Amino acid sequence: MADTVFHRTQLAERMAQGVMASAVGSAAASGLFLAAPRRTGKSTFVREDLRPALQNRGATVLYVDLWANKKADPGAVIVGAVRAELARHEGVVARLARSAGMEKVTVGGVAFSLDRVGLGKEISLSAALAALSDETGQPIVLLIDEAQHAIATEGGYDALFALKAARDELNSSAHHGLRIVATGSNRDKLAMLRNSKDQAFFGAPLVAFPPLDADYIQWFCKGVGLAGPLDPDAVTKLFERAGHRPEILGAAADSIRFDFSIGPADAAAAFAKAVDEQIEEADLQTLRVIQALTPLQSAVLRVLAREGEKYAPFEAGTMERYRAMLSALAPGEAMVPEVSNVQAALGALQDKSLVWKEKRGVYSLEESMTAELMRRHGLLDVAA
């Protein structure tokens, strides 16, 4: 059976080498942060390529996806992943039980519960990860997908600082090392985890995750299995137009794969048309949500999208921009922007998955591509 996953083995090997480096001057011990728009292949790469590359270098690898269950607190998700890995090692459980003062241990039974491990618990994450590293004799790498969600809750914040303490302990000469690799779909949000001195991973390197390249296009064109061949150069242009999102190409191929009226000579044109339709449909879903906003919600979203990382939601100048935008969008609107109703508007935009809020009150677009989408459709051209 053909492999339906495109592998980036060379990139994974280079990245794994950098993550595991212990040379003088290496920043790997501080953590590594990878930024790329959502649905551009980074999660697949982390699971399918980077994780095995790290394991082949002798690391115990834990993977956490903070986007998989948006209702779960990120701190609890991180703790759950650590507990799950601990449960796979009976020797580690025995160590932890003894550290909790239990000489007689019933592994997996009532005598010791992994519920004792966690934030504010009897056994800290640092102690648990140190016991795991000591038992296995291996360095530990924690892969955190969509890591920016960790700073949206108190529990997530606490987990990051617990991991910092664990990193500092495990990277000492007494243990085998801990590396944190965090990915995020919004560079500005991900940067909040390492830009200021009060953040757990201050100074850790933040790099742009490379988009899928010509090798992926060749792989796709070779294996897509349509009625006729596709030209890689033409597909490259379509892929760029699709924002380097492989799911757009896949959905386009699926939409015409069983159209038996398409002959070999028509396949390329039909595929190009299907890609454009998929892009339009993907945009339309977001546009429908935006077009259903109240005038004030729309004004707040447009001001945020225009200002980006400089956005200060409740400053006097921003309030004036809301008023100007609201007046341009709905000249007869009687509502006057105030802190209370702007706050409510931002809350509604969060509920609609258009806006994201960091625990301390910093706001950002949920999807970095939303601003470009709004710009393309003239939603940011309103004179305000």
Tags for this entry?
single chain; 8% strand; five-stranded parallel sheet; flat; 384 residues
Explain what this protein looks like in three dimensions:
Helices cover 49% and strands 8% of the residues. It contains 15 helices and seven strands. The protein has helices at residues 9-20, 42-56, 74-87, 90-99, 125-136, 154-170, 187-191, 214-223, 232-241, 246-257, 267-291, 295-307, 316-329, 339-351, 369-376, and strands at 32-35, 60-65, 140-145, 178-184, 206-208, 355-357, 363-365. Helix 6 links the parallel strand 3 and strand 4. Helix 10 (246-257) crosses helix 11 and helix 12 (295-307) crosses helix 14. The radius of gyration is 24 Å and the shape is flat. The model is unreliable at 107-111 (pLDDT under 50).
Strand content: 5-15%
Q: What does the oligomeric state look like here?
A: single chain
Main sheet: which strands, in order across? Answer: 2-3-4-1-5
Quickly give the structural class. alpha/beta
How do the helices and strands follow one another from N- to C-terminus?
HEHEHHHEHEHEHHHHHHHEEH
Give the N-terminus to C-terminus distance in angstroms: 57 Å
Helix content: 40-55%
* Rg (CA only): 24 Å
- Given as residue ranges, the uncertain stretches (5+ residues, pLDDT < 50) are 107-111
| Annotation, overall tally of beta strands | 7
Overall form: flat
Rounded mean pLDDT is: 89
Main sheet record? 5 strands, parallel
> Total number of helical segments?
15
